[in-house]
Amino acid sequence: NGYLGAGAGGGAGGGGGPLVAAAAAAGAAGGFLTAEKLAAESAKELVEIAVPENLVGAILGKGGKTLVEYQELTGARIQISKKGEFLPGTRNRRVTITGSPAATQAAQYLISQRVTYEQGVRASNPQKVG
């Protein structure tokens, strides 16, 4: 009927900032999965990205809220390696994203945007030590 998923994501901008609002707007602009698209995208994809240890909290959010929000927005499953488990030779945690190609791409985009944003905030507001 063309209205599949209409109204989903309403209110997703609450506390999520412009990033979540942009993702919700992208969804409203035709990003909803129809039954045909869903069948075509049933192939599962696994993507791994590295996130600096000090920025994992920005992706998790308070009580894991941001991570859950990203999973709900994209339909992908996002897992972060345990504290102290780094990619070999780095201080980066492994973030594993699984789902349809569209879902993993969307989740990867949201995470990379969040990391970039947080790096910018921290660069312009250096924390005072001591």
Automatic annotation (TrEMBL):
- Does Repeat count among this protein's keywords? yes
Picking any one GO molecular function of the record gives: RNA binding
Keywords of the record = Repeat, RNA-binding
- InterPro entries documented for this protein: KH-I_NOVA_rpt3, KH_dom, KH_dom_type_1, KH_dom_type_1_sf
- Name the SUPFAM superfamilies for this protein: Eukaryotic type KH-domain (KH-domain type I)
Q: Which residues form the K Homology domain?
A: 43-116
Keyword Nucleotidyltransferase (UniProt): no
Entry superkingdom: Eukaryota
Signal sequence annotation:
none
PANTHER family registered for this protein in UniProt: KH DOMAIN CONTAINING RNA BINDING PROTEIN
Oligomeric and partner information? Interacts with PTBP2; the interaction is direct.
Please identify the protein, giving its name as recorded: RNA-binding protein Nova-2
Q: Which gene encodes it?
A: NOVA2
